[in-house]
Write a structure and sequence with these properties.
Layout (H helix, E strand, L loop, with lengths): L2 H12 L12 E6 L6 E9 L2 E10 L2 H14 L4 H6 L2 H8 L5 H19 L10
Antiparallel strand pairs: 1-2, 2-3
Length: 129
C-alpha cells in the first residue's frame, strides 16, 4: 500500500464522514462481521428517489470504518438506482488498497449493510460472492 492510500484510509478511520445516526430514518440496517466483530449501522433518509442524508455508526477496524465513511460520502445525494447499482468492484476501487480474503469482508461490510437495508433483506449475501 502506498503512502497516499494509507493516509486516505487512516483519515477516514480517524475522522469518519457522516458518522452518527439519523433521527427518524426511512431505512436503517445494522449487521456485523462475525469473523472479526466489526459492526456497522447505516441510516438513510430518502426523498424524490434520492438519498437525501446518510449516517453510519458502529465499531470496527480501520478498513471497515474507512469503507463506511467512503461509501456514505459516495451515496449521499445519489439517485436510488445508482446506489442500488453500486458494486463490490466500485467499493474496492474507492478503498484503493488490495485486501486479503479476511480483510475483504471488512472492506465490504458497509456495502452489505447498505444493500440489505435498501432491499429489506437481513443477511443479504450478494456482495460476498
Amino acid at each position: 500500500m502506498d503512502d497516499f492510500h494509507r493516509e486516505f484510509i487512516l483519515d477516514h478511520y480517524k475522522r469518519p464522514r457522516n458518522f452518527g445516526t439519523l433521527e427518524d430514518p426511512d431505512i436503517t440496517n445494522e449487521e456485523d462481521n462475525p469473523f472479526c466483530g466489526d459492526r456497522i449501522r447505516i441510516d438513510l433518509k430518502l426523498g424524490e428517489g434520492r438519498v437525501v442524508d446518510v449516517r453510519f455508526d458502529g465499531r470496527g477496524c480501520a478498513i471497515s470504518t474507512a469503507a463506511a465513511s467512503i461509501l456514505t460520502d459516495k451515496v449521499k445525494g445519489a439517485p436510488l438506482e445508482r446506489v442500488r447499482a453500486f458494486s463490490k468492484e466500485e467499493m474496492l476501487e474507492a478503498l484503493g488498497i488490495p485486501l486479503s480474503p479476511i480483510r475483504l469482508k471488512c472492506g465490504l461490510l458497509a456495502l452489505k449493510v447498505l444493500k440489505a437495508g435498501l432491499y429489506g433483506i437481513k443477511g443479504w449475501p450478494g456482495e460476498e460472492e
